[in-house]
Design goal:
Number of helices: 8
Shape: elongated
Distance between the termini: 109 Å
Structural class: mainly alpha
Helix content: 40-55%
Radius of gyration: 31 Å
Order of helices and strands: HHHHHHHH
Number of strands: 0
Length: 182
Amino acid sequence: MDSFELNKVLGAILGTCLVLLVTSFTAGAIFAPVMPEKPGYEIAVKEAPEGGAKEAAAAPSEPIEKLLQTASVEKGAASAKKCAACHTFEKNGPNRVGPNLYGILGDKKGEGRGFNFSAAMKAKGSEWTFDDLNKFIANPKGFVPGTAMGFAGIPKDSERADVIAYLRTLADSPVPLPTAAK
């Protein structure tokens, strides 16, 4: 191969590199990424009141006694389908991620049901009342800080009342409805 052929080959390689370099600089100038001032995404989270999570748990606006007077068991059964991913409702039904909810009203918190409750739920103690269920369903982590229940809660008062009215019917002898304070 003579020097003229060698110069043509080296010239072609050099020309190709020069075209690639110019193309890279041009693409970088046209499609330059805009870097954000602060990396990442901001996630909007509701601020807890100064009193902490316990005050946030006491957020239901109307007393459950009043809400239960107009609650619909049928609507509650439909709304409880959200809960069916983790809970069962039939008598002697199996536990899933959460315990079976048959006869929950008046039952002890964090005990029995053949379910391994979180330490926070076991420590809560006492029995499930209408008011306790209302607060728990509104904000599980606010009512029982440290609970393993990952559900965010049902914010709408009437929907919670419907679910509680439905849960009340799931018992051999349903707990009587509380009377509304005048």
